[in-house]
Every structure is written in structure tokens, then in C-alpha cells.
Amino acid sequence: MFNFTKTDIDWLIIVEPQIFWDERWFFMETYSKKEFQNAGIDCDFVQDNHSKSKAWVLRGLHFQTQNTQAKLVRVISWRVYDVAVDLRKDSNSYWKWFGIVLSAENKKQLFIPQWFAHGFVTLEDNTEFVYKCDNYYMPENEGGIIYNDSTLAIDWTQHYNGELFISKKDTENVSFEEFDTPNIF
Predict the structure, then answer these.
(1) Helix (H, G, I), strand (E, B), or coil: what is residue 156?
(2) CB neighbours (10 Å) of residue 70?
(3) Residue 84 and residue 97 in contact, taking contact as beta carbons nearer than 8 Å
(4) Are 135 and 34 in contact (CB under 8 A)?
(5) How many helical (H) and strand (E) elements, i.e. helices and strands, does the chain have?
(6) Does domain 44-180 have CATH number 1.10.760.10?
(7) Taking the mean position of all CA atoms in its chain, how far away is CA 118?
(8) Are residues 82 and 98 in contact, defined by beta-carbon separation less than 8 angstroms?
(9) How far apart are CA 57 and CA 165, in angstroms?
(10) Cα separation of 174 and 2, whole Å?
């Protein structure tokens, strides 16, 4: 059983599983195709991913230009500040972003529809982040928007207090202005 909470961005949904606690600790379902379909989320997830990172690792903001991916993301150890950006030009929330702390403790998940950019910063050492995708990763279709774009103005600093660790690839992502001109979405 799940509680599905809509955000102010269409189809970006916070998912909270029901957790059953006893002296052994807990049990929960993390996904049920039937319940997700009843909530209007009809994805055929085909790939699961898992990353482990030290504190203050920033990954993103990533998307695919073709074979776009819907994602169901969650944290299984420690915490992240997770961000999704609407890239749908015809959307009322085009270029708006939503951020949420996902943690092993709160067990919240975020459903991110296709045509969104996604990124997160880890808030603890040994953070493990897992997610389902409804399309396969294709490196030739990979795109990215720079995490510190001034138009987006995501306040990553409210959630971390150390030096960020960012891959060279992610420091070379394009700005909103560079993305917006050829935007194929």
C-alpha cells in the first residue's frame, strides 16, 4: 500500500510506502505495478540502477534526448537532496524544479516522469541511491544541464556543508540558455 502525493509539477509524485514494523524491524513493498497504475503511473520498468557515494557528491542534472526515462528513485542508506526539473516545453511548469530530501529513514520515493532532468547531492558518506527506469540507458542520447545554472537557481547549499565532488562530465553540462534553443522535448 502506498500514499501518492502530487507535487506542484504535473506527474512528479512523492510515493510513500506503508511500513510494517515489529521486533524484527520492518517490511515494505517498494513497488506494485497494480497500485501505481491505479494512481495513474503506468510504467513498464526495465532497468534498475544503484549508486554508492561519499558525502557531498553531486550527480546531475541528467536526461536522455531519446528513449527518455521515467524513474522511481529512493535511498536505501543515509540521505540525498533530490531534484527534478521539468523539460517539457508545452508544460505549465516548464523549467520549474522540485527538490526533496530522500532518506533511508523517511523511506520516501519520487516518481519522475519522462522528459525531466534529474540530479541529487549526497548528504552523508556511504549513501546508497537506487532507482528504476522505464527505458534503457543509452550513452549516445545522454544530456545534461549544469547543476548551478543561474536561471534554475537551485539552492543546493541549503543541504550540504562541504566541498562538492562533481564529475568532469557534469561540470561540462550546458546552461539553460544552451539547452533551451535546440530543446527537442
Answers:
(1) helix
(2) 20
(3) yes
(4) no
(5) 3, 14
(6) no
(7) 5
(8) no
(9) 5
(10) 37
Record the cell numbers describing residue 119, joined without a space.
540530479
CB atoms within 10 A of CB 51: 14
Q: Share the mean pLDDT of the chain.
A: 94
32-52: pLDDT as tens digits: 999 999 999 999 999 999 999
Q: Is 62 a catalytic residue?
A: yes
Strand runs labelled E in the chain: 2-6, 13-17, 20-22, 25-27, 47-53, 57-64, 71-77, 79-86, 97-103, 109-112, 116-122, 127-133, 142-144, 165-166
Inform me whether the pLDDT recorded for 183 exceeds 80. Answer: no
The 10s digit of each residue's pLDDT in 134-144 is 999 999 999 99
Dihedral sign of CA atoms 103, 73, 158, 59 in order: positive
Whose grid coordinates read 526515462? 69
Choice among 62, 81, 118, 147 that is catalytic:
62
Reply yes or no: is the peptide bond before residue 123 cis, omega within 30 of 0: no
Distance CA 145, CA 171 (A): 9
Q: How far is Cα 54 from Cα 121, in angstroms, rounded to an integer?
A: 10
Give the H/E segment covering residue 76: strand 71-77
Q: What is the pTM of this model?
A: 0.94
**Domain spans of the chain, in order of start:** 44-180
User: Which of the residues 81, 118, 131, 147 is marked catalytic?
Assistant: 131
pLDDT of residue 76: 98
